[in-house]
Every structure is written in C-alpha cells, then in structure tokens.
Specification:
four-stranded parallel β-sheet; 30% helix; binds iron/sulfur cluster
Length: 237
C-alpha cells in the first residue's frame, strides 16, 4: 500500500493531499466564469507550482487520487477508508490504542487537502467514515465545493461531525470569508492586514510578514477549532 499521509512543513500535524485543480471541480467551474476585475484565488494556487510540480511529488499525488477513484468505483470507497484509517492509526496511536506524543507533530490534529478538494459526494462520504473512527482527532478541511449547490448537503453532513472543522474558502482576493449555513466560519485571502481586520477577520499569524511561517511557531491552531464564528484571513505576499 502506498504512503497516504503527507507531512506539510507549515502544519502542526500530518495531512492528506491529492492533485490540485484536477480534483477541484468547483475551482474548474469558477475558472470558466471568473470576473476579470478581481483576482481569482485559485489562479495563485500554491499547490499548482513549486514543490508540487516536481515529478516525484506529482506522481505520488496522482497515485493517491487513483487509489481513491478506483476504490470509489469498486467498493464505494471502502478500500480507501480502510487504508487511511490504518495509516492514521499507525502514526497517531501506539499498539495499545493510546495516543502517541510526537516531538514535532500534534496527534490531536489532521489536515485534509492543502491540495485538492472534496470532489464528489461519494468521496465526502468516505471522509465521513474516516473521521467517525477518530473522535479524538480534529480534522480541518478547506473547500471551495460549497459553490456547487449539489455538494452542499454532503458537505453539511461532514461538517456536522463534532471533530470536523469544514471551512468554506473565498473565491476572490480581498473578499470577506464566506459564511455558509451548516459549515464552519470560512477563510479568505487579503492583501492588507488592516483591511482584513476591518472586515472582521482573525489574521493568520503565520502569514504576517516578519513572523515564522508555521502554525507551531505562532502557537496557533485556529483553523482546527470548530465553532469559531470569525473568518480567518491569510495575507497574500
Ligand atoms: S481549490 Fe484549492 S487546491 Fe484547488 S485549485 Fe483552488 S486553491 Fe488550489
Ligand atoms: S490561522 Fe493558525 S492554524 Fe490557521 S494556518 Fe494560520 S497559523 Fe495555522
């Protein structure tokens, strides 16, 4: 079985990724109708450039997506669910089922998709089954799939889990974070800290110039906190 977990440097925990844009149907739809007067956030997607374009990284992301699509087709995603659960269990828990204490990773947290999105109802259902198995881990999902009406009921079901923080992402730079019924407070991208604060957001400390660019260095877990009512703004540089 391939290694499914990723180790994003800026994050305090392990994560999971699939290729960007190709597995982001809402981003694809929005790209076709985007306003020319505004800056479409997905046009600057960090997961479409740099490290993510190295051939080994691309191959690894694609292999994960292939495993998911094959499993969704063959057994409603159960092979994927079982593999993810096995790998999370091995990294986060000891053989007695107790949570491990790791030096550099917080085993109370898990980040889903710093690349890719919740591309279909069946895929969302697979994540519901994964998250249900780990009530002591808080899962953070960003998503632009809230823009597709057909996805919303499925996203709301995932967001209804107590250990899931499902945050709708903004579409354009310098626009307030979306507030969507049944989902957690959203996130946005701003070019000005003052404007982001004036529009009522917490500003991600890891994106403030001069600060260390990691969650750990800023002692911040805000994106994982369910019930946070205020949007979060990441600053664009
Ligand atoms: S939805 Fe996220 S991962 Fe997908 S293209 Fe947009 S910014 Fe990139
Ligand atoms: S707001 Fe906090 S948890 Fe979210 S990305 Fe920034 S530093 Fe990390």
């Amino acid at each position: 079985m391939i290694n499914l977990l990723s180790n994003p440097k800026k994050m305090p925990c392990y994560g999971f990724n699939i290729p960007a844009f190709k597995y982001c149907p809402a981003a694809q739809l929005l790209a076709k109708i985007k306003s020319k007067a505004k800056k479409f956030i997905c046009d600057s997607c960090y997961a479409c450039k740099g490290f993510y374009t190295f051939s080994n990284v691309k191959a690894s992301l694609q292999a994960k997506a292939d495993l998911i699509t094959k499993s969704l087709h063959q057994d409603n995603g159960q092979t994927f669910v079982d593999a993810m659960c096995d790998q999370i269990r091995a990294k986060y828990f000891d053989k007695h089922g107790n949570k491990k204490k790791l030096k550099t990773k917080n085993t109370d947290l898990f980040r889903v998709h710093d690349s890719g999105d919740l591309f279909s109802p069946k895929y969302i259902s697979a994540w519901i089954r994964i998250c249900e198995q780990f009530p002591t881990i808080r899962f953070w999902f960003p998503t632009r799939e809230w823009k597709r009406d057909s996805q919303l009921p499925h996203l709301q079901k995932l967001a209804s889990l107590k250990n899931v923080c499902l945050k709708p992402s903004a579409i354009y730079v310098d626009e307030p974070a979306p507030q969507v019924d049944g989902l957690d407070a959203g996130t946005s991208v701003y070019t000005s800290q003052a404007q982001a604060e004036q529009d009522g957001h917490y500003v991600c400390p890891a994106t403030i110039e001069g600060n260390e660019p990691t969650c750990q260095a800023n002692n911040c877990n805000l994106c994982f906190i369910k019930g946070c009512k205020k949007g979060i703004a990441y600053l664009a540089h």
